[in-house]
Amino acid sequence: MTRQGALTIQTNRTILVDTHHEAFEEVQKYLSLFAELTKTLEHVHFYRITPISLWNAAANGVSFQHILDTLQTFSRYPVPKPVLDFIDEHFHRYGQVIFSNQDGALALIIRKETLRESIGNYLKSFDLTPTEEGFLASMEDRGSIKATLIKHLIPVKDLAGYERGAKLPFSLRKTTLSGAKFSLRFYQAEAAYLFSQWKEGSGVIVLPCGAGKTIVGIAIMHDIQENTLIIATNLEALHQWKRELLDKTTLSAHHIGEYTSQEKSIRPVTLTTYHMLVHRKSSSEDRHINILTQYQWGLIIYDEVHILPAPIFRMTTAIQSKRRLGLTATLVREDNQEGEVFSLIGPKIYEYGWKNLEQQGWIATAKCYEIRVPLSGEDFDTYLKASHRQRFRIASENINKLTVIEYLLERFRDQNILIIGHFLEQLEEISRVFGIPLVTGQTPTEEREKLYDRFRNGTLTALVVSRVGNFSIDLPSANVAIQVSGIFGSRQEEAQRLGRILRPQSQDAHFFTIVSQNTIEEEFAKRRQMFLIEKGYTYEVLYFTPKSKTMVQEVNIP
After folding, report:
1. pLDDT digits (tens, 9 = 90+) for 247-260
2. Of 71, 193, 278, 391, which one's alpha carbon is 20 to 30 angstroms from that of 312?
3. What's the CA gap between 276 and 473, in Å, rounded?
4. How far is CA 177 from the centre of its chain?
5. pLDDT digits (tens, 9 = 90+) for 498-513
6. Same fold, 186-352 and 358-556
7. How far is the CA of 20 from the CAs of 5, 6, 70, 71, in angstroms?
8. Torsions phi, psi of 251, nearest 5?
9. Structurally, what CATH architecture does the domain formed by 358-556 represent?
10. Is the pLDDT confidence value at 344 over 70?
């Protein structure tokens, strides 16, 4: 039987969604609960059902019947049986293996009899004792067993409990140090409450950049009231956490320590970076993680958990007795290690939609554009003769992009503009040509902070930033972002860069990506834009003519 549904479901679990169907927006909302967006074209979007997408759905209380109803209601054709079988198998795997604490030993409770023999084989290298319900193991092997089982597509529901940290009583301020009224936004309070009620004790909260993930982390710290280790992406993010803690809680500077290359102070709340945890000067020197994990933490916060370095995954297997919170704007990882995040940090506990927050005024309304500009004739000849990797760099550093930047700087001269890119030589040239300060990983911390402060207070209205601008810089006045180059097709990077301009503004934010026309950069741009589509944004393609400095469809830029 054929129906005029929005979905075409293939036997390989790929779902094609008709973008012109009247139920398109409704279908997207439902699919995002249990499927992952993989590709977007003008007339069709592609989703895929994966084990992790189903486990997260199960962990978040999405029912098996709801998934079936969504597919059967909106599918143009009958749902293929292999797809139904796959959903049945993997959705119900979550909860079939449960960890509990049995008199200090790790009890593996296996609720599906047919899994017991397989799991016994997978875990041969561990010292297991058979029981009526499954096995007993050492609590020290908790993380390693999880990591082993996830490789065989067996998720663990971990109810083995956590060590209590040293008590840390403090309150949230009702008025910040700057005199502003402070209270949790409803979704921040909701996320913190769900984490505090979460039986597994650890997991991931997904919120857009600019929505206040740091505040959610602070609210959860307040609920737990125990010593906390916070791992940030860089020193700027670390200092942002410290500012927010001092501004919005009764914690004093005496309670907060920094564990960095400049200062090694362990306090009830200790801030460090991923780099610091994995860094060591020699092979014989202990990594700093060995020092930090021996402290009596009640909570470990992984900021921007989607960029968690591989060595941190390995280290996290050893600290499963610590309660863990991952904060991120997107669970997309370019290394396909989402399974490790699920297994070692925890399932997705809470997510609130980007567009919902925008519509409610909590983050800025963003208008997204891709501006295509041609290579010069000489550069295009060079491009055609180059290797794949060389082509990407030639397209990224297209000299005609300078003309587009000049146009946009003039068009938005009264706004606060961030120019963001990947290649340092390109950014240095932009900085020199337009006389705009540049911030890179080599910029001294003190100079960086001075430039950020000038941008925040309005004495500087444009700033060029390298990849250091991708993560956790607090520049709430920024409302125009011009992306000139990036890491191939990174959806993760797209999320971070869009997030730089999503702090609430009195006017719309504008996000521009400048792309070399008829080059490999166009293909990578499509992959990046999947993130925008996934979060409910639309983007418009514009064409720029360098010689005349005109924009086709210029009228569409407000």
Report:
1. 999 999 999 999 98
2. 193
3. 19
4. 30
5. 767 667 565 688 889 9
6. yes
7. 11, 8, 18, 18
8. -65, 140
9. 3-Layer(aba) Sandwich (3.40)
10. yes
